[in-house]
Amino acid sequence: QEAAYPIFSQEEVTSHRSLQDGVWVTYKGGVYDITEFVAMHPGGDKILLAAGGALEPFWALYAVHNQEHVLEMLSEYKVGEL
Ligand code: HEM
After folding, report:
1. Are 3 and 77 in contact (CB under 8 A)?
2. The pTM is what?
């Protein structure tokens, strides 16, 4: 059974778009706090383009993310759902 996650509004997600305020993103209805991951990202600061919003448009452009191990990595940062 899946753990119950808190529900966040898009406004709440959008308010987290800097290292100072925390960096949150969404992916397929999930909300992720990736603040700690930003410095570890193999693609560098580009990751901040998605801060406070959806990963989908960016991952559609950078297909390197279309791999199981990337989704596993993302899942570790899940904090809630939209
Ligand atoms: C590469 C994770 C967001 C751009 C990668 C790789 C991982 C990763 C694991 C290496 C993949 C591999 O080589 O097997 C993530 C995660 C993200 C995220 C977990 C969000 C939480 C983004 C965004 C962008 C981006 C939003 C662009 C706006 C890139 C680029 C590379 C890359 C350009 C290739 C780097 C290179 O090999 O030179 N990312 N990424 N990523 N990422 Fe991301």
Report:
1. no
2. 0.94
- Count of CB atoms within 10 A of residue 13's CB? 22
**Does the domain spanning 10-81 belong to CATH 1.10.486.10?**
no
**ipTM rounded to 2 decimals:** 0.94
Residues lining ligand 1, judged by CB closer than 6 Å? 25, 34, 41-43, 46-47, 49-50, 55, 58, 62, 64-65, 67, 70, 73-74
Coil, strand or helix at 55: coil
Residue-wise pLDDT for 44-73, tens only, equals 999 999 999 999 999 999 999 999 999 999
The residue extents of the domains of the chain are 10-81
Q: How far is the CA of 20 from the centre of ligand 1 (A)?
A: 21
